[in-house]
C-alpha cells in the first residue's frame, strides 16, 4: 500500500507541516515524486511533490462519507505510553473526537503540549489504518456535548453494563476517568449533564483496555464490525 501524507489543501496545492515534512524526508521523496495526500476530512488526493513544503494536487483518488455511528471520547491523561496506545486504537476504530481533560485524580496533567502530541499520534494512526477522517483532539472547555447523543460514564460503580446501554442512537459520548477513578463530585457533575454510569464488566480494567473494549462493544452492537 502506498504511503498517505496529511496535507492542508488550498487552491490546488497541498501544504505540509514540519511533522509531514519529516515523514517525506524519511521516505526519501524528491521533487517530482508522486504523493498521496489526505485532507483529514474524507478525501484522498494524488499529487506531485514540488518541494519539501508542498505538492500540486493532480486529482481526487477517493472520497468517503463519515461513519454512521459517531463516538466521542473524554479521557484523562495517563502515563504516555498507555495514553498513546489508547489514542492509536481509538483512532483506528474511527472515533470522531478525543477530548483530554484533567480530573481530580489525574496525575499527568493535560496541557497544550500534550494536545499537540496526541494530535500527531492520531494523525499517524489514521495514515496507517487508511481511514480518511482525522478525529478532532481538543480540551474539554472547547467540546460541545452533541444534542441527542447517548452519554455514558465508564465506572465500576455502574449498576448497568455498557452492553445493555447501547441504544438505537447513532452518537455516543464515552467518558473514562484516570487510573484512580472518578470522585463522587465528578460522578455528580457528569450525572448533571445527563450521563449514565455503566461498567464494561465485573473486572476493573486499565484505562487503555477500557477504551478499546468500550469502542469495540459499541461498534459491534451497532453492527459496524
Automatic annotation (TrEMBL):
Pfam families: Methyltrans_RNA, PUA_4. Residues 68-218 form the Ribosomal RNA small subunit methyltransferase E methyltransferase domain. One of its GO terms (molecular function) is rRNA (uridine-N3-)-methyltransferase activity. Keywords: Cytoplasm, Methyltransferase, rRNA processing, S-adenosyl-L-methionine, Transferase. It catalyses: uridine(1498) in 16S rRNA + S-adenosyl-L-methionine = N(3)-methyluridine(1498) in 16S rRNA + S-adenosyl-L-homocysteine + H(+). GO terms for cellular component: cytoplasm. The keyword Hydrolase does not apply. It comes from the Bacteria. Its main location: cytoplasm. Residues 17-57 form the Ribosomal RNA small subunit methyltransferase E PUA-like domain. GO terms for biological process: rRNA base methylation. Its EC number is 2.1.1.193. InterPro entries: Alpha/beta_knot_MTases, PUA-like_sf, RsmE, RsmE_MTase_dom, RsmE_PUA-like, tRNA_m1G_MTases_N. It is found in: Cytoplasm. Specifically methylates the N3 position of the uracil ring of uridine 1498 (m3U1498) in 16S rRNA. Acts on the fully assembled 30S ribosomal subunit. Belongs to the RNA methyltransferase RsmE family. This is Ribosomal RNA small subunit methyltransferase E. It comes from Mesoaciditoga lauensis.
Amino acid at each position: 500500500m502506498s504511503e498517505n501524507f496529511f496535507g492542508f489543501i488550498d487552491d490546488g496545492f497541498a501544504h505540509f507541516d514540519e511533522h509531514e515534512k519529516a515523514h517525506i524526508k524519511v521516505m526519501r521523496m524528491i521533487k517530482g515524486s508522486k504523493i498521496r495526500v489526505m485532507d483529514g476530512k474524507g478525501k484522498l488526493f494524488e499529487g506531485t511533490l514540488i518541494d519539501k513544503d508542498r505538492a500540486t494536487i493532480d486529482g481526487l483518488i477517493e472520497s468517503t462519507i463519515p461513519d454512521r455511528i459517531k463516538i466521542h471520547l473524554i479521557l484523562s491523561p495517563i502515563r504516555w505510553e498507555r495514553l498513546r496506545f489508547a489514542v492509536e486504537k481509538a483512532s483506528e476504530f474511527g472515533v470522531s473526537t478525543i477530548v483530554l481533560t484533567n480530573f481530580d485524580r489525574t496525575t499527568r496533567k493535560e496541557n497544550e503540549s500534550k494536545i499537540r502530541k496526541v494530535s500527531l499520534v492520531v494523525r499517524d494512526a489514521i495514515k496507517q489504518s487508511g481511514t480518511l477522517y482525522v478525529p478532532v483532539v481538543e480540551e474539554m472547555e472547547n467540546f460541545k456535548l452533541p444534542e441527542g447523543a447517548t452519554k455514558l460514564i465508564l465506572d465500576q460503580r455502574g449498576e448497568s453494563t455498557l452492553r445493555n446501554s447501547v441504544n438505537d442512537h447513532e452518537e455516543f459520548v464515552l467518558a473514562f476517568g484516570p487510573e484512580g477513578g472518578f470522585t463522587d463530585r465528578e460522578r455528580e457533575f457528569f450525572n448533571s449533564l445527563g450521563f449514565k454510569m455503566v461498567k464494561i464488566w465485573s473486572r476493573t480494567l486499565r484505562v487503555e483496555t477500557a477504551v478499546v473494549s468500550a469502542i469495540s462493544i459499541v461498534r459491534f452492537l451497532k453492527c459496524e464490525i
